[in-house]
Amino acid sequence: MSDVNVTKICCIGAGYVGGPTCAVIALKCPHIKVTIVDLNQARVDAWNSSDYNLPIYEPGLEQVVRETRGRNLFFSTDVDRGIQEADLIFVSVNTPTKKTGVGAGFAADLNFVEKATRRIAQIATSSKIVVEKSTVPCRTAESMRTILEANSKPGCHFDILSNPEFLAEGTAIADLLNPDRVLIGSLQTKAGKSACRSLCEVYANWVGLDHILTVGLWSSELSKLAANAMLAQRISSINALSAICEATGANIDEVAHAVGKDTRIGPKFLKVRSVGFGGSCFQKDILNLVYLSESLHLPEVAAYWRQVVEMNEYQKRRFTRRVVDTLFKTITGKKIAVLGFAFKADTGDTRESAAITLVKHFMEEKALISIYDPQVEHEQIWMDLQEAAPDYAPQQIKKQVQICPSAIDACHEAEAVVIATEWKEFRKLDWQAVYDNMSKPAFVFDGRLLVDADKLTKIGFKVEVIGRGAPGTEMTI
Ligand SMILES: NC(=O)C1=CN([C@@H]2O[C@H](COP(=O)(O)OP(=O)(O)OC[C@H]3O[C@@H](n4cnc5c(N)ncnc54)[C@H](O)[C@@H]3O)[C@@H](O)[C@H]2O)C=CC1
Ligand SMILES: O=C(O)[C@H]1O[C@H](OP(=O)(O)OP(=O)(O)OC[C@H]2O[C@@H](n3ccc(=O)[nH]c3=O)[C@H](O)[C@@H]2O)[C@H](O)[C@@H](O)[C@@H]1O
């Protein structure tokens, strides 16, 4: 069997993964025509917009799209044509946590993957390599193969590969240009290995072969869940230790630094965030792993991973509690400025953002909340809050919450500032001006260890830093 020389790629799903990933493939493989298709007309229109007002904010992305769009990169809602033309199809659709039915709250909703797979089977009139890019439970490729084989036209052969994506939002382009590894899983058959080589060749246009790992299909699928679970586990571990620091007077920064110096542990992903981890994937993928473990009758394994998510929820509750306790045990009617709403800096994405939970908690305490984020659309903030607090009427939410055009506006006459996202502009804020316009005493709760606490204290702020005891309890020997 000769390997397919890939000249036309279709990516189903023009989201945070499909868009940047395939834009970079187009950039690095000018000989390949890459078409990204999506059912969402507004999203495709934004990708095609003449002023490059792209649907997602990602540093460096606009430049890549400017260079490739119309050359060998195309965005379209014509899913069928995209499928028909391609030699290789990435399935990069969303796989959110199921909200209802069997496995609700834990299992991945594979409906979008299944629909895309069925469409491929229905439309394709020639053989294709189908690549699972979405994060999916272990053995999903088998279901895809069954669907494709049961519905394929005579003469059409489908090879399924797993090629999970490891990019992080905010650094997507850098991660894609210089990945730690590209992982490709295939069946260990002649056809499977041949398909794997075809995809390797695409990546080999810019990724060294020593960074392209080829493994079995199930290992590849599980490695993606495992990587996210282990990254999140490190964050929950350091967050758990931050609670001990606060109770003992130890300093979590010093502890994390000392621990991370051990080369077996390493320094990355040990940054304590009082607001806990957010993002569309960590929680979803761990819950997915929990569900998988339970389905495999491994309750101890399920309980182990579940605890990572529980610790994260505890961290968010603990932070709200600290705000309330510090503000003299009540925030009713008090104005709290929340700086940042995205789940991390350099993205406009709010999925599972810890800021949503914090604002919800503040609403329950009857505070008045003013929010500012440099990238998140206002409409998105209202939608997120309504979804998080379905019992609140929209007017009630708008009575308690306002969205401001700048950080300075949000902080005006506030009693406390809560930094919920580590946007650089918050570090550079004119904190003296913020202080002058706030109610006194003026509190800053740095949920991201972003600002210079000593400098702010000198201005007059009362600064609360996670992982350190309250001011005055530091070691003074
Ligand atoms: N967001 C991230 O940073 C990362 C996400 N992942 C995984 O990648 C997958 C995609 O995630 P995102 O890009 O964030 O999701 P997303 O929600 O931003 O994009 C998915 C897109 O697929 C489209 N879609 C759904 N069904 C379709 C169909 N049948 N035909 C055509 N288009 C369809 C949707 O309209 C949507 O625009 C998920 O499985 C996620 O777990 C993996 C690594 C990083
Ligand atoms: O599957 C995915 O979706 C992706 O999930 C994460 O990427 P992402 O969620 O975009 O961003 P991260 O940088 O991992 O941050 C996730 C959350 O953890 C928090 N975090 C991160 C690092 C840290 O030390 N402490 C910490 O609290 C961040 O503030 C953020 O809320 C992984 O890092 C990616 O490898 C993976 O591809």
TrEMBL record:
NAD(+) binds at residues 13-18, 38, 43, 93-97, 134-135, 169, 281-284, 351. Its EC number is 1.1.1.22. Residues 337-453 form the UDP-glucose/GDP-mannose dehydrogenase C-terminal domain. Pfam families: UDPG_MGDP_dh, UDPG_MGDP_dh_C, UDPG_MGDP_dh_N. GO terms for molecular function: NAD binding; UDP-glucose 6-dehydrogenase activity. Keywords: NAD, Oxidoreductase. The keyword Signal does not apply. It catalyses: UDP-alpha-D-glucose + 2 NAD(+) + H2O = UDP-alpha-D-glucuronate + 2 NADH + 3 H(+). This is UDP-glucose 6-dehydrogenase. The lineage of its organism: Eukaryota, Fungi, Dikarya, Basidiomycota, Agaricomycotina.
